[in-house]
Amino acid sequence: MRKPMIAGNWKLNKTIAEARELSGDLAKCLANFEAVDIVVAPVFTSLAAVQEMIKGTAIKLAGQNCYPEETGAFTGEVSPLMLKDAGCEYVIIGHSERRQLLEESDTFINQKIIKALEAGLKPILCIGETLQERENGDMLDVLANQVKGGLANLSATHMADVVIAYEPVWAIGTGKTASDEQAQEAHSFIRGLLQGMFTKEVAFATRILYGGSVKPSNVDGLMAQDDIDGALVGGASLKAEDFIRLVRFEKP
């Protein structure tokens, strides 16, 4: 069985002091909680502080992004090796905000995934359609292109360390959430794509998270779906009480 994962993407929030406080609160309540893989992704400036607070607990550290080079003249960027050195086990790649605001392509995202894996990091590949793409009937084509482009040149062995996060863009930070059925439909489609690209075993073993206004009031229904293996959470990850409730989800 796939182990559930609840990952908190803090985005551009929390000073170092605030990040210490939040991660400290999470560590107190979730230090030995092993039923779910717990991941937090603070801003780069808070990675060391958060790692100090969660060290020795069940909580894992993630970077919010990386650049597909180890070193060099790339001002303002952070390499996968540097994230690994800072204590990260995971890295979020291809988030819709970066795809939209910074125009990151599937090719560039694929380069990041390959370099992250080479550095020993586990990528969380984000994919998802916009509202216009969904309404135009292009959702499945968009998801197929993002999955195939993002995972190009990867082997079945690589996939053991890859997590996919389906995040419909129209549900991120809007308060709108895909219904349980809509989310399950997309997750099932993605798993089918993985079977076609790799093997049935890879498709079954790969964790697919849902992201898009996940909160304590809707997490239980989402987690009851057969192909939803967890959540990549934005706003609800910024309050310890809310995030702890997500980690301790209850299937109906």
TrEMBL record:
Question: What Pfam families is this protein classified in?
Answer: TIM
Recorded GO molecular functions are: triose-phosphate isomerase activity
Which pathway does the record list?
Carbohydrate degradation; glycolysis; D-glyceraldehyde 3-phosphate from glycerone phosphate: step 1/1; Carbohydrate biosynthesis; gluconeogenesis
Where can this protein be found? Answer: Cytoplasm
Which residues of the sequence carry a binding annotation for substrate?
A: 9-11, 173, 213, 234-235
Q: What is its main location?
A: cytoplasm
Keywords on record = Cytoplasm, Gluconeogenesis, Glycolysis, Isomerase
Q: Under which EC number(s) is this enzyme classified?
A: 5.3.1.1
Any one Gene Ontology cellular component term annotated for this protein: cytosol
Q: Which GO terms describe its biological process?
A: gluconeogenesis; glyceraldehyde-3-phosphate biosynthetic process; glycerol catabolic process; glycolytic process
User: What general EC class does the enzyme of this chain belong to?
Assistant: isomerase
Reaction equation(s) it catalyzes: D-glyceraldehyde 3-phosphate = dihydroxyacetone phosphate
Active-site residues (renumbered): 95, 167
| Record's keyword annotation contains Isomerase | yes
The annotated subunit structure for this chain is:
Homodimer.
Q: Which family does it belong to?
A: Belongs to the triosephosphate isomerase family.
Query: What functional role does this protein have?
Result: Involved in the gluconeogenesis. Catalyzes stereospecifically the conversion of dihydroxyacetone phosphate (DHAP) to D-glyceraldehyde-3-phosphate (G3P).
The entry's protein name is Triosephosphate isomerase
Q: Which organism is it from?
A: Malonomonas rubra DSM 5091
- Species lineage, top-down? Bacteria, Pseudomonadati, Thermodesulfobacteriota, Desulfuromonadia, Desulfuromonadales
